């Protein structure tokens, strides 16, 4: 079976992906966030600008969003980078956010005594 050049070329692009800088969704910088039983702050520095944020926790085999910036492009500075929210104990949380144009992530676990454990590991 012969394949024409017109068939093979698009097939190659579909299999390899488009050229570029790679996956732009990777949040490979690690930075903790401020946590208390009733508040989450992505930054407490007035000079920082928070653009996107997402906080979710793992429920057995699925995740549930706790906090999310959505599809908009907010530009928040402290104190707007803090959110009044009660986090549940006994869960593993994933925070992804863009602060000062740098993509950060923070993974942590809160035990039943409200001890926070960082779950940092390399990509």
Describe the structure.
The protein is mainly beta. The chain has one domain (23-118): Immunoglobulin-like (Sandwich), CATH 2.60.40. 10% of the residues lie in helices and 40% in strands. It has 1 helix and 9 strands, in the order αβββββββββ. The chain has one helix at 5-16, and strands at 29-30, 34-36, 39-41, 50-59, 62-68, 82-84, 91-99, 102-110, 116-118. Strands 1, 4, 5, 7, 8 and 9 form a 6-stranded mixed β-sheet that branches. A 3-stranded antiparallel β-sheet has the order 2-3-6, with no helix packed on it. Strand 4 (50-59) and strand 5 (62-68) form a beta hairpin. The radius of gyration is 19 Å and the shape is globular. The N and C termini lie far apart (42 Å).
Write the SSE topology:
Layout: H1 5-16, E1 29-30, E2 34-36, E3 39-41, E4 50-59, E5 62-68, E6 82-84, E7 91-99, E8 102-110, E9 116-118
Parallel strand pairs: 1-8
Antiparallel strand pairs: 2-3, 3-6, 4-5, 4-7, 7-8, 8-9
User: Strand pairing plus helix content: what structural class?
Assistant: mainly beta
> Number of domains in the coordinates?
1
DSSP E strands, number: 9
The second-level CATH architecture is Sandwich
CATH class: Mainly Beta
Radius of gyration: 19 Å
């Amino acid at each position: 079976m012969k394949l024409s050049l017109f068939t093979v070329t698009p097939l190659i692009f579909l299999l390899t992906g488009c050229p570029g800088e790679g996956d732009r969704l990777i949040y490979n910088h690690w930075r903790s966030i401020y946590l208390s039983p009733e508040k989450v702050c992505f930054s407490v520095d007035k000079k920082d600008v928070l653009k996107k944020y997402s906080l979710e926790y793992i429920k057995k085999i699925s995740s549930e969003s706790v906090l999310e910036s959505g599809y908009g492009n907010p530009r928040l500075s402290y104190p707007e980078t803090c959110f009044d929210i009660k986090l549940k104990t006994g869960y593993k949380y994933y925070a992804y956010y863009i602060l000062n144009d740098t993509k950060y992530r923070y993974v942590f676990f809160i035990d039943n005594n409200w001890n926070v454990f960082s779950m940092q590991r390399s990509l």
